[in-house]
Amino acid sequence: MNTKLYILSGIIVYIAVLSSENIHFRVAGDSPQEVLSEELQELIMAFNQLFNADDDRAVSPVIGVILMVAITVILAAVIGTFILGLGDQVQETTPNAQISITNVTVDGGTVTNVTFVHNGGDSFTSDNTQTLRVTVGGEELGEADASDDFPFQAGNEITIDGSAGSSGDTVRVVWVGEDRSSVIAQRVA
């Protein structure tokens, strides 16, 4: 390290001497600029050899360390996700389908029968649906039977019989999944 410092200071001194007009050298008949420029060129070459050596040995270990750190971080994230159970929190979604309530039968002021039809979109199967529940004014009228009514797909119709609510209440068809539910159709009785 000291050698590099000496060479650097030597270059600075020679540059100062070249730019100075008050100092004159005479060596074997050469002009001061010729003598200094030859020595300056030798110093610059030595300086370049010290600082620009073709020593690329440090590149591979640095890249190796960066790759090892990246792999460790990725593995820690994946393992942490499974250990903390974050991978199991994938939320189920309601099948995207167009359902319409085609008939509501009211007998003596009480809703006794609701028919709804699948007009298109995703099918309701036992894999994505636990049940299709019909409510009238918040009371449950009945549910579709998974063994008989599924798959419920475009063009199919389901009729639920029971007794709930009254005329003027809101009739809803509710999709029920494992962890959540969603209203897929509604109308006034």
Quick structural summary:
By secondary structure, the protein is an alpha+beta fold. 35% of the residues lie in helices and 30% in strands.
What distinguishing features does this structure have?
2 domains, 189 residues, Immunoglobulin-like, alpha+beta, three-stranded antiparallel beta sheet, 7 strands
Domain tally = 2
Mean pLDDT comes to 78
Q: Classify the beta-strand content into a percent band.
A: 25-35%
What is the class of the largest domain in the CATH system? Mainly Beta
Tell me about the biggest sheet?
4 strands, antiparallel
Strand order, main sheet: write it out: 4-3-6-7
Distance from first to last alpha carbon: 93 Å
CATH topology label of the largest domain: Immunoglobulin-like
Just name the CATH architecture of the largest domain.
Sandwich
Counting DSSP E segments of at least 2 residues, the number of strands comes to 7
Briefly note the structural class of the backbone.
alpha+beta
Anisotropy-based shape? rod-shaped
Rg over C-alpha atoms, rounded to the nearest angstrom: 43 Å
Number of helices: 4
Spans with pLDDT under 50 lasting ≥5 residues?
A: 19-28
Which range best describes the helical content: under 10%, 10-25%, 25-40%, 40-55%, 55-70% or over 70%?
25-40%
What is the succession of H and E elements? HHHEEEEHEEE
